Amino acid sequence: MNREVALKIVLGLVGLLFLALTYPLIVFVRQDPSLSMMFSIYVTLGVFLLLAIRNPLANRSLIAFTAWSSFVHAAVMGTQAMRNMISRDELAGVAVLVVIGIALIALAPANQRAVPAPGPSSVYQPG
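Given the sequence above, the corresponding structure tokens read:
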């Protein structure tokens, strides 16, 4: 399996995982409004990750954002769990977010070199 196919599979799995947060978003909307606001961001991100499957190279910044925001979210959750601000059970979520971040960074499409724009001498100018 080549790298692009693996990336498309990861984008699909992560996109569906994030989209699956729609149900908890609806359930927690009255009980914990801040949690549902966070879920709404992940649901939206899931939709765009699924759309990015078509052309991962054109969506490099979205893939990078998803990876790095997963690392940041994992760091915050891990710190909160270690300080007993949230349940230690949340460390499973930390592990999932770290795996998502690593997979997306490892499989992210390489940066393409920009083709230089044609100079003024190569443009047709009627005279």
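Residues 5 and 53 are 9 Å apart (CA to CA). Try to locate this feature in the token string yourself.
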